[in-house]
Every structure is written in structure tokens, then in C-alpha cells.
Input
Amino acid sequence: MRSTSTALFSLLFLLLSACAGESGDAGESEASGATSTGGSGTDTDATATGMETSTGGTGEPVGELRGVVDFTLYPPDAANDAPLLGIAGGYRMEPLGSESLFALVGLQLTLPPPPAAIDTIEEHAPLPFTWGKADTWLSAGNAIKLAHADAGEALACLYLADDAFPLYLGAASPSLAPECEPKPEVWQPSSEYRLVLYGGELFEDRIIDGKVATPAALSVSAPDLSVYDLPLDTALDLALAWEAGDDPDARIVIRVWDLYGQQTVALAADDGAFTIPAANLAAMSAGPGFLSVARERVHEVTFVAGSVEVITRYEIWGYVDLL
Output
């Protein structure tokens, strides 16, 4: 029989096709909390016809538009036999406040950004994501696309979170067209991708080559994340080990969180080892918890309307019993 923590993670994936909560009128007010799967009903037959192509950004952004694109592969783990590819994005005229948009929209999970400095650990109390005013979130074209020369393409399609906030999501959901469900094989390690931004009335469509690449796949050797309900004693230091990478642009993000959302987040160099002191785990509640280790690359793509931060990520999940 699978554990409570395993069942919870499976439930997070099921929430892709279910409403996560009530939404209020967010047109002029502040809103925060979980997202719901309000579909946009937009055409997702995105093509590159008539677009301007560039091999990277155009220098410093002229406009104030800010965007995030999250392109994450979750390989098979102790709870899931099949991989999952998540792609999500969004635009604002201010920082978005999250680098993990797929977790936020697709998994109903608020993950704070990692620390700014390498070898730094931060703790976060359980807090919902603060959306801000609905009119600060901008709707561009009908999709965002990442395309691999041989493996195909992944679409994130226009979607309303909490029935008010325009975002872009690629997932298996009745709110989205079938072509908006990305195939995991599209995510290839250590590979370049074409980024396509469909601008609608917000900006001219852009095809950007040579600026986005995925990190290498990741293999974690300690702790043993293949074990269901792996005991994790929060009174002891947590030593992690993985196969070190040789990409100077890659980073490692480690997260531990409990059933109530208390989180410890570390940013580490990709040198194969990192230890989280017990003092940084003391606030965790006993019971089911989660441990994730991700190898990431962050790309800043600039164009005339502004800039888009693209995070490519290979993220391994573990299911722990916090003691």
C-alpha cells in the first residue's frame, strides 16, 4: 500500500483537471492562493508563419515587459512510473514572483525562488502565492513554444488561473486542447531549443534561437530517493550526493517541505555534494514530506518588448517521512 505522502503527490497531478478552490472578483483587488483550471478557449494551432527570427536577444530590453517560462522534466520516481513534462509561462509589467510556474499552476504548489547566492539556505513559512492585481498579468498570443530540432515541440497554451490571471500552461487537462499536453520525450538533456513567443496584440511574434538549452540529466545517490517514505530525521544534518556536472551555467536547487508547506530551500554548486544542517530543518512538522533535487539552467532572453527568463530544469522528487 502506498504511503500518505505518495498518495498526496499523485493527488497533486490529478488537480490538473480539477478546481483547486473558490475564486473571487480579482479585477481590481488583490488575490492570493491556489489556482484553478479555468480554460481560455483560445485557438492553440500555433505556427511560425510571418515571424521575425533572431539568434538571441536584441541587447538591453527596450520595453518593461517581464516574462517567465518554466520547462521542467520530472523523471520517474518512487511514486510515478512515467515521466512528466511541465511547461508554463506568464507575462507582467513587473517581476512575476515565481520561477516555478508549472508547480504553481499545474501542481497547485507554491515554491519560492531559490536563494540568490550559491551555497545559501533559506527557510520559508507556509504562505500562499500572492497574485497581485489581475490587470498586472498580461495576455499575449495564444501560446509559448519550445522546439527541439529532432525531438519535437512543447506548447504552453493560454489559460486563466483563478479564472482571472492569464498564464500559459502545457499539461493534461480538460481545460486545454490535446496539443497543449507536452510529450516527455520533447525534453532532451544538454540540448538547444528554439523559443517561440506568440505576442498577439502585446508584441510582435518572436522566434529566438541559440539562447535556451536544457541541463544534463541528474542522478542522486544520497539519500536513496527510490525508497517510499524514506525516514528523514530532522534532528540530523541532511547530506546529499549526486553525480557532479561540468556545465558552468548549471545550478542545483534542493527543497525540503512538509505537509503544511514549511520549506527549506538551498542553492548549491553542481559539484556533487551539499549538506543542509539540522538547524534548517527544525521547523518541519513530523509526518509526510517531500525532498526534491533539481539541476537548472536560467536564461535571460531580451527583445524589444522587454525580457523573458527561461528556466530549464530536471527535477527529481523524493517522498520522505519527517521524524
Notes: The chain is about 5% helix and 45% strand. The radius of gyration is 19 Å.
